[in-house]
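Minutes, project check-in
Item: structure for the 253-residue chain
Input as provided by the requester:
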Amino acid sequence: MYTDTEGIILKQIKTVSGRRMVLLFSKKFGKISAGTSINEKGKGKSALAMRPFTYGKYELYKNRDTYHINGAEVLKSYYRIGEDVEKYMCCSYVLELTERVLAEDAKAPEIFYLLLDFLSIMEERKKKFETLVLAYQVKLLQCYGNMPKLDACACCGSTENLTDFSIKEGGLICKACILQENTNDALIYELNFAIVDILRYFLQNSLKALKSLALEESVQGQLQQILKDYFAYHLDIKTLKSEGFVMGLSQKK
């Protein structure tokens, strides 16, 4: 069956005989693996559409559970992302994280448009790239349906004396429940109302509305660690190749 779809290139892997396997986040089918003989280093319009940080239209041949990309054209190339190393690594991290969150062959239109918004905003952003990455992570959890509980205790439902944030319980917990928990648990964070306010602000606003937001380094660093632990515990995403670079940006500053 021949078909086409809009999509975002997540990753390309070279295989034997000049062929490549492409991980494509497609609008029509979700995340798919597709073979292709198109070389991203070529000069044709199809080659340009195979490069990282490219939003394109892809001609596919689907045979049962396999896909092959026969042709492609660029709809939008976010080439300026590659002009800044920090920006490039932050975007690489987001692509890698998104790829790990997505299920194979499952449509995810909310995440698809969220990623397009992120790439568009990031291409224009001049500094504080990590803040936008954090906003994307929170919005990604929101789209995935796995956001921390922020309006009441994740254990008992009380709205009184919310004193800590528990990774395991998935949100805020009250003083009474914290006394029943292991207070030496590394996955329990003493409540920082600035962090909670930021999480709520991220949830209440679109990514485009957050394009100029820049967090203080101390708050940013703590939020990075909380989200890292949260993704590891609840989505089993523990190690990403680009993670060390992104986490290190705040530590250097």
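Outcome recorded: The chain has a mean pLDDT of 89.
No further action items on this chain.
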